[in-house]
Amino acid sequence: MPKEIKEFAIALTPARRLGKMEEIGYLISFLASDRAAFINGAEIHIDGGSRLNMSSLGSRKEIRK
Q1: Core-most of 13, 17, 25, 38, by most CB within 10 Å?
Q2: SS3 sequence of the chain
Q3: What pLDDT, on the 0 to 100 scale, is given for residue 52?
Q4: In this predicted structure, what is the pLDDT of residue 53?
Q5: Residue 16 to residue 40: CA distance in whole angstroms
Q6: Are 15 and 44 spatial neighbours (Cβ–Cβ below 8 Å)?
Q7: How confident is the model at residue 55 (pLDDT cuts 50, 70, 90)?
Q8: Considering the entire predicted model, what is its pTM?
């Protein structure tokens, strides 16, 4: 991935970083376990908060910390 595109994606993500493959694996492992037996038809976003809107996140100052 070109550096400019990567930096742009990170800047748009409230978590201010890219996700790790392990984080996806942790969710899959949980969902496949008995602990998640009552979860049905859920859509779980693993995106560092990208789908949240600015009003949900608070002020821009809080987001940039």
Answers
A1: 13
A2: CCHHHHHHHHHHCCCCCCCCHHHHHHHHHHHHCHHHCCCCCCCCCCCCCCCCCHHHHCCHHHHCC
A3: 79
A4: 63
A5: 30
A6: no
A7: low
A8: 0.64
Where b means 16+ CB within 10 Å and e means fewer, 26-45 reads eeeeeeeeeeeeeeeeeeee
- CB neighbourhood size of 15 (10 A): 11
Query: pLDDT digit string (tens) for 21-39?
Result: 999 999 999 999 999 999 9
Alpha-carbon dihedral sign for residues 53, 45, 50, 61: positive
Return all residues near 60 (Cβ < 8 A) that are at least 6 apart.
54
Are 57 and 21 in contact by the 8 Å Cβ rule? The answer is no
* One-letter identity of residue 31: L
Comparing CA positions, the residue from 48, 45, 41 lying closest to residue 15 is: 48
